[in-house]
Each structure stands twice: as structure tokens, then as C-alpha cells.
Known about the structure:
With 435 residues, this protein is an alpha/beta fold. The protein is 41% helix and 14% strand. Strands 5, 6, 7, 8, 9, 10, 11 and 12 form an 8-stranded mixed beta sheet that branches. The termini are far apart.
Amino acid sequence: MAYKPEPAGLKLRLVAAQRLKSVLAGDNFVPLGATDLVDGRDRALANRLITTALRRQGQLNFMIHALLDKGMPGKSGTFEAVLRLSLAQLVFLPDLGAHSALFLAVEATKRDPKARHLSGLMNAVLRNAQANSAKFGMLSDDLLIPDTFGDTWLEAYGEEAIDGFSDALLAGAALDLTLKDNDPELIDALGAEPVMADTVRIEQRDRPVEALPGFAEGRWWVQDAASSIPARLLGLEPGARVLDLCAAPGGKTAQLVKAGYAVTALDADTKRMERLKENLERLHYAAETIVADAGSFTPETPFKGVLLDAPCSATGTFRRHPEVIWHRSVGDVAGRVRLQRSLLTNAARCLDQGGVLIYCVCSLEPAEGEEQVDWALQALPGLELWPVTSEELPGLESAVSPRGLVRTHPGMMPGGRSGGMDGFFVARFRRSEIG
């Protein structure tokens, strides 16, 4: 029998379907790498299909409900993932062609023993979608944000901001870097633009992060503009002892070292702490590192500064992780709130008299931000709010509330730059007396 070559594009479709299937099951999205698909063009296309399906998940949910009378078949392997990839291509990526979407979807379904009996259904559904692609392409952007968070965000941020959220979700995130030194030649070599303070932004790149100028020499580290704000607000003298709780992978640790503090970085995850150490080594920075539980760690001597980047719902990161807003529930947020209060309590215990505590989360939920401040001021004796001023965040004054709390969101443009930023909450406290 003559050898029949595999249809062009089928392998990348199969690999993309497996990755999307894992994300739909609850995993965080990790872009496909060279070990998944050797050819860079195939890899870029597969990642484009997956990210489009994730960013358009709410609209795809609407389409699937309209197209599948009996709902999604149970125990059907990669059927749903292949369907979502193909719908995303048909409706939102017309430049890739409709024929390949239909043909490769059916072929991919046939390759999966758990889904092959549904190849006819796949073909019928996609042909129906093709016939209605113009209508589906006009679906409201309101579908992009799940009801779980939509009402809360509308109340907290307003309708204009929510429109910005949708735009940011579809656009994705640029690459932000924190520089060790202000070097115009390096900024030019990176093809970057200054954003705020020592943060620069790369809108488009044609190579992996590790291949960018200055990476091997440790001249910068990857860090979203919003994530770089908390460490800048400690306001302590150089040489002050500072504790970075939940520190891995180490972006804020690096900032604290750069600021001249004597830094102790603590994290409970051994593997993540190894990554922190590797990052510091690449940057030629030094800090004490401790693997321990941030909720029970007791230092021999209290610290003048404590930075707590607490575990949270991470809803503010949806530009890079669009799946997160579909994975999280109200119960998840409540669980994070309880954990954050435990960590805040111990962070305050680690703080010296007159010391400064920074609390931050990459969450858009008021329950994990503003409401935690109210709780801390009532529950933690001796802790008082030290308001952040708008002068401390030039170019981002709108992020500072009348109470002196910092709240960024994906619709904000740091320094007037396009591309948005992560949703982050930051509060600054000072210990007036030992409680």
C-alpha cells in the first residue's frame, strides 16, 4: 500500500487541541514551545488558534449553544477543543481560510478514538457555522466577560472601563521589562518604548524572550508595568531589611535588591524558589532565600519593610491568561480572601515598629483589595494606612484613589502608552506600635 502523507496542518491542529483541552479542564494556558512543535510557523499558528479560542470563549459558548441542539457530547475526547479551534478560525480568523478549518477539524476528530464517531456531527456543525459566520462575527463583546465577574466589575469600574477590559482581552498583553539600568542603546536594541519609571514595553517581537538583547547578560527581567508598582512604594532608606513574602518567581525581589535593600525572599514552593534563585543569578543580584510558609514564618528580628504579594484569584491577569476569568468562581475568591487575611496577619507580625507593609494582589475583585484594607485596619492593632499619593505614580495618577490606595486595571494606559496593563491592587500600611 502506498504511503499516504499526513494532511498539511493536521499535526499542529492535534497538538493545539490537546493543549486547549487541558486548559478547558482547568489548567493554566502555557504557550506551545519548540518541544511541542518544532517548526516556528506551525507553533505560532497553533498558539494563535488557541489564544483566539480562549479570548473568544464567551462568544464561542454562545455559538456552541446555538449550534448543538443536544449540547456538548459527553466523554468525547478532543471533540470540544477541536470544535472551538475551528469555530474560532471560521468566524474570527477568516484569513486562515474556511476550507482548512472544516477539513482539518473532521480529520482531527477521526484521529481521536474517543471522538471519531462524531466526525459527521463536526462536519455538520461547522458547515452550519460557516453559513452563519457573518451573524456570529457580529456577536456582542458583552459576551467576552462572564457573568461571574461582569456585574461586580461594572459596579466597581464603570461601563467605560469594562469596554476597555474587552478590548484588552482581545488585544492580549505586550511584553513589559524592568531594566537594571537606564540604557537608551539597550532600549533601542530591544525595540522597546519607556512606559513608566524603569519599565519599558515591547509591542511586537519576533523571537523568544531568552533571545532578546540583554537577557543573557542579566540587564532586565520580565515584569508587567502594574506588577512593578508595589516595590517602588516602600519608601525606606537603602540598607533597610525587607522581607518579600510569596516572592517567587522574583520580579519584586529583584526590584528590592536594585533599590538597595537587604532582602530576604520567602516562598513555600521549592521549585518556584529555585526559579527565583536562577533569575537572581542571571541578574547578578543577591538576596537571602528561605523556603517556608508565609502564614507561619517567624523571623528572629522584625523587618523594616514587608512586601506581601498574596495568592489571589489572579483575575487581573486575563490579558495573558484569558482562561482565568472562566476558571474562577465566587467560592474561589472567598477562599483566597481567607488565605490573604491569614498572610496579612503574619506579615504584620514580621514588621518592626515604624515599619512599612505593602499588600498587593493581581486581582480585580474588591473583596481581595479594598475590602481587605478595611478588615486589616480593624483586625490588626497598630497597623495604619499610609496613603499613596498621585505624585508617587507620575503618568498613572488615575490609579490612586482618594484613600491613597492603588488600583490598576486592564483598560488603563500607563504613561499614555497603548497595550493596557494588568489589574493590580496595592495598599501601603505603617506599624505605629507593636500590637
